[in-house]
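fwd from M.: "can u put these together and see what the complex looks like"

so here's what she sent:
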Amino acid sequence: MPRTYLITPGPTPVPPEVAEAMARPLIHHRSPDFKVLLAETLERLRRAFLTDGDVLMFAGSGTSAMESAVTNVLCPGDQVLVASAGNFGERWRKILLAYGLEPRYHGQEWGERLDPAAIAAQADGCVAVYVTHSETSTGVVHDVRSIAEALRPTGAALVVDAVSSLGGVELQTAEWGIDVVVSGSQKALMTPPGLAFASVSERAWSLAERATLPRFSLDWKTARDAQAGGGTPFTPPITLVAGLNAALGMIEAEGVDAIWARNRDLARATRAGVRALGLELFSPDDDSSSMVTAVLMPDGIDGQRVYGLLRDRFGVVLAGGQGPLRGRIIRIGHMGYMNQFDIITALSALELALIELGYSPPSPGAGAARAVEAFAGVGAAGD
Amino acid sequence: MPRTYLITPGPTPVPPEVAEAMARPLIHHRSPDFKVLLAETLERLRRAFLTDGDVLMFAGSGTSAMESAVTNVLCPGDQVLVASAGNFGERWRKILLAYGLEPRYHGQEWGERLDPAAIAAQADGCVAVYVTHSETSTGVVHDVRSIAEALRPTGAALVVDAVSSLGGVELQTAEWGIDVVVSGSQKALMTPPGLAFASVSERAWSLAERATLPRFSLDWKTARDAQAGGGTPFTPPITLVAGLNAALGMIEAEGVDAIWARNRDLARATRAGVRALGLELFSPDDDSSSMVTAVLMPDGIDGQRVYGLLRDRFGVVLAGGQGPLRGRIIRIGHMGYMNQFDIITALSALELALIELGYSPPSPGAGAARAVEAFAGVGAAGD
C-alpha cells in the first residue's frame, strides 16, 4: 500500500492533536469534566460561526443538521424556495420533498454561481429559502452575503448549508443576517465525521416555535434546553466532541482570518498549477471559491480512471465528479489540515496519472513548479 | 484529580485496541479501504445481532435508531402499543407522540419485569409493539423472548430497544423472531457513542414499504441500498466504524456466550457484595438481569450525594437514579470492557462513600470480600 494523502473536499486529515484528544480515556457525558468540555466547545463553535446566538450540536452527519433545519423551521404547506446549482443544493430539495413540502425551485447550471436577485425574485411569501454556501460538487462558493441582502425585503428566513465551508472561508453568520447555518465536523473543522451543528437566529427560533413538522432526536428546543443545562439530550459522540474542541483550539490559535487567507492561497496556487498543466478549470478561475478546485479532464480521459489511478497507484485521494459531472472533473480540496505541500503533491500526482493515461502536458513538471512559484509570491501576475 | 473508573451502564470504557483503531489516519469513506472495513464491520454486527438479515448503521445516538424504528415502520393513524416499566420505555412513547401517533400504553411500575401475556392482551390490531430489552433505568432485563412468543398470535411486529443490552446478554434476534432490534455503539459494544444500528426482519421490511411517516437521514431503504453498494448514504463516523470493528473483533475472540456468562458473574458478585454491605437490591435478585445492578440507598442517605462523592472523591463513576428513582438508587454497570476488579472497586468505593455519609455496614470490608468469594466460586450457596 502506498502512503495515503487525503486531499479531498472532506473528510479532511485529522491533526495529531485532534487524534490525541480523541484517544484519551472516555469521560462520562453526565460528568463535570464533560460539562466543562462541552461548554468550551460550544463557546468556540459560536466564535467559529461568528455569532453570539445559539449553536446546537447533534450526533449525526451534516445531512442530519440539514434535516433539522427543515423539520424545526417549517409546517406542512409552508411556501419555501430552494436555490440550487449542484449536488448539495439538490439535497435541500430532496429533504423538503421527503417531508411533504412542495418547494419552489430556482435551479442554475451546475458550476454557476447562484444569482441573488433571481433568488429574491422568487422568494415572495416564502417562510424560508434554502441555499448552499460551498457547493462541494462544483467547487463554487456561493455569495450568501449578497443572497441574504437580496432576501431582506422579502422577509424570508435564509438557511445556509455550510457543511464544507464553515471555518474555511468567510461566513459571517450574525453580521450577514443568516438565520440558520448548518455544518459538520469533518471538513474545515478538522475533526472526523459524526458531529453536526446548526446556528439558530432569533427569527429562526420564532419559526421553530410554530414549526409542526415532526422530529425527535434532532429537535432544536430539546438540544437548546439540554445545552443550557451543560449537557446534551441524548448520549453525545464524546470522543468527537473532545477532538472538535482540540481542533477549534488550533483554529483559534491560527486565527480564522489567517485560515481563510491560507485556503485562498492554496486555491490560487492550485489554479496556477492546473493551468500550467494545460488543463481547464471547471470551478471559477478567481478568488471567489477557495474550498475546492474542480479540474476538467482532457478530452478522451475518464476522470474516474484518473481518480482511481491517483488513489491506488499514488495513494493520493482526490475526489471525482458527482452526478452529471462524474468522469468529467477531478476535485482537489483546500480545507482543514492542509498546506502548500499537499497542493504540490496533488498537482504532481495528477500530472503523473494523466501522463500514464496518455496525456502530454505542455511542459513536464510545470504544475508543481508553478505552484511553488505561486507560494513564493512571485507568480501573482501574468500567469 | 483521582484516577477515573467508568463503571456505568454506558458509555463504557474504551479498550486500548479500540482507541488505537480510532487513532489511525482517517481513510476516505468512498475508498476501497473503507468498503472493506464497512463490509467486515456489518458482517460482524450481524453476528452480534444473531441474525442473517439486514443490520443498518446510522450516524447518531441510540435514540436516532429508535426514531428510525418509528418512522420507517408506521403510517399516521396506525395502532401501536408501548410496554414500559422505566425511563427508556417512556422514550418509545415520547417518540411516537412526537410523530403524531396515539400509542396504546401498557405501563408497569418502574423496576417490574414486563408481563408478556398482559402485553399480548393489548396488542390486537396493532401494527407494532415497542418494548425495551435492558431497562437501564431500573436494571431489569425484560424477557423479550417470551414477549415475542406471546405476541405471535396477534400478528403485531415486535420492536426492541437493545441499546444497552446487545452483545452483553443473550438476544437471539432471528431465532426469537424479533422484527426490529435497535442498538448503539457505546454500551456492550465497547465503542464510543455516535453509531446506531437497526436490524430489520423481512416483515419489518414489508412495513417499511408501506410506512409513510417522514424521514430522510434515517431512512432504512436509503441505508440498505448504500450498504449493498459497499457504502453509506451520508458521510459516516469513520473513526467510530474503525473502533467498532476492532471491538467486534474482540467480542468474537472472546465469544458472545463467554461474554454473557462474564456479565452474569459480574452481576452475581455485585449482588452478593451489595447484600453483604447490608443494602437492598432494587433490580431483581436473580440471574435474569445482568446488565445493571440497581442498589437502594439506606434511609436518610441521598443517592445523588453518594453518586457525587464517589465521582469526585474516589473517581468512581457509577450512575444515579433517573425520574422517580433519582436519589433513591445507585446503579453499577456490568457491560462492555469490565471485569471482576471493576466490581470489587465499585463495591469498595460504595462502602467508603456510604461510611463517609454516616452509614454503618454490618461488617467492614464485607462487600469486597463477598465479591471476591463469589468470583472464586465458593460463595454460590447460602449467602
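replying to her w this: The longest helix of chain A spans residues 256-276.
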